[in-house]
Amino acid sequence: MSNKENKIKVEIFGTSYILRGESDIEYMQELASYVDRKMREIQKETGIISPTKIAILSALNIADELCKTSPKKKESISVDTSLAKRAIELIDKIEKELR
Q1: Measured in Å, how far apart are the chain's first and last C-alpha atoms?
Q2: Is residue 1 part of a domain?
Q3: Which Pfam families match (predicted)?
Q4: pLDDT score, position 63
Q5: Which residues of 5-28 are buried (b: 16+ CB within 10 A; e: fewer)?
Q6: Selection from 31, 32, 53, 33 nearest residue 42 by Cα
Q7: Are residues 65 and 57 in contact, defined by beta-carbon separation less than 8 angstroms?
Q8: Is residue 74 part of a domain?
Q9: Between 81-98 and 51-69, two packed helices, what is the crossing angle to 10 degrees?
Q10: pLDDT, tens only, 70-80
Q11: Is 73 domain-assigned?
C-alpha cells in the first residue's frame, strides 16, 4: 500500500477547499460532492441562509445516515435532538456577537 498523499481542489457550497489525503482523488471528489449536495438540500428545504447552520444540520443528517446504516456506529455516536437544538442556539449567539 502506498503512503502517497493526493491533493485535490473541491468546491463545497460555493467555497473552494484543498483536500489532502491518502485516498484516491475520485473518492475525495465523491465525498466533497456528497457534502455539497447535502448542504444544498438542507438550504433548499429549510430556507436557512447561514452557511454555518447549514453545515451543522448537514453534518447531523450525515451522522444520522451513518447511524442508521451501521448498527455498530450507532452505539458509539449518540445523536440527541436537544443537543442539536442547543448547538443551533449557540451558533445564533456567536453570529450575533460577530456582527
Answers
A1: 49
A2: no
A3: ZapA (PF05164)
A4: 86
A5: eeebebebbeeeeebeeeeeeeeb
A6: 53
A7: no
A8: yes
A9: 160
A10: 766 555 555 45
A11: yes
